[in-house]
Design brief:
- About 50% of the residues lie in helices and about 15% in strands.
- It has a seven-stranded parallel beta sheet with strand order 3-2-1-4-5-6-7, sandwiched between helices.
- Helix 1 links the parallel strand 1 and strand 2.
- Helix 4 packs parallel to helix 6.
- The structure holds NADP nicotinamide-adenine-dinucleotide phosphate (NAP).
Length: about 240
């Protein structure tokens, strides 16, 4: 049976990825930071293993990966999905604001990859999918740290694809557009309608749109795809 570890699985896109993979018969572990109730409910619904872990803490990540690998026996697929947004002028950001955004998306992916890759290399197989953002490709005003973190994930994915290809491991990056989750709470309904209008496919994305692309990239049919940056954005990022 195929096994997966998803970071930030308690809500939004991560929860949709957990649901989609378990529906396809994968054994899944996911981590979360603080949404204990939502994580327990998802665990009961899907049979996935929920592990509390703050991914900005490398020691917690090391322990979480060890626990996931022990319970799943090994990890075939790692999805680095956890992320936080921060909106405002760069000049208003504190050091802690900056670190929180960079650490949650980018440093966390380094911590998980460092912990998961040795097992994949020893089996000479594995898939890593990093959830970046359209803003990592094109940049967003008032989201400089977020854009930098997500651009960093693109660079990390391309470099690791070259480093790990000879070991039979693929590494790819997804760049969602505007996806309906709690992360959009800062937008008014008018903002959201305008964003849908700007999207060539005339709607916002859903967590299931992203989850379906993860399932495809994790499947046998995508075995020759690595180092790619794939938009799941309804054409918004073109
Ligand atoms: P969301 O609904 O806010 O969910 C974020 C998830 O990440 C939650 O499960 C949260 O756990 C977890 N998380 C946050 N900080 C964490 C930490 N320090 N340690 C462990 N888990 C942590 O966000 P989303 O919209 O689903 O976004 C998922 C990913 O897609 C993010 O990387 C985001 O940047 C990216 N993305 C989203 C959009 C969009 O429009 N929504 C667009 C492009 C890219 P808790 O529930 O415990 O807090």
């Amino acid at each position: 049976m195929k096994t997966a570890l998803v970071t930030g699985g308690s809500r939004g896109i991560g929860a949709a990825i957990v649901r989609a993979l378990t529906a396809k018969g994968w054994q899944v572990a996911f981590c979360y930071r603080s949404s204990h109730e939502a994580a327990q409910q998802l665990s009961q619904e899907t049979g996935a293993l929920a592990i509390p872990c703050d991914v900005t803490d490398s020691e917690q990540v090391r322990a979480m990966v060890t626990e996931a690998a022990r319970r799943l026996s090994h990890i075939d697929l790692l999805v680095n999905n956890a992320g936080v947004a921060w909106q405002g002028l760069l000049t208003d950001m504190t050091d802690d604001d900056w670190r929180s955004v960079l650490d949650t998306s980018l440093s966390a992916a380094f911590y998980t990859c460092r912990a998961v890759i040795p097992g994949m290399v020893s089996r000479r197989a594995g898939r890593i999918i990093n959830i970046s953002s359209i803003w990592g490709r094109v940049g967003a005003s008032c989201e400089a740290a977020y854009s930098a973190a997500k651009a960093g994930l693109i660079g990390l994915s391309k470099a690791l694809a070259k480093e790990l290809g000879p070991s039979g491991i693929t590494v790819n990056c997804l760049c969602p557009g505007v996806i309906r989750t709690d992360m959009l709470a800062c937008y008014t309904p008018e903002d959201l309608a305008a964003l849908a209008d700007e999207t060539p496919l005339c709607r916002l994305g859903t967590p299931e749109d992203v989850a379906a692309t993860v399932c495809w990239l994790a499947g046998d049919e995508a075995g020759f795809i690595t180092g790619q940056v794939i938009g799941v954005d309804g054409g918004f990022g073109q």
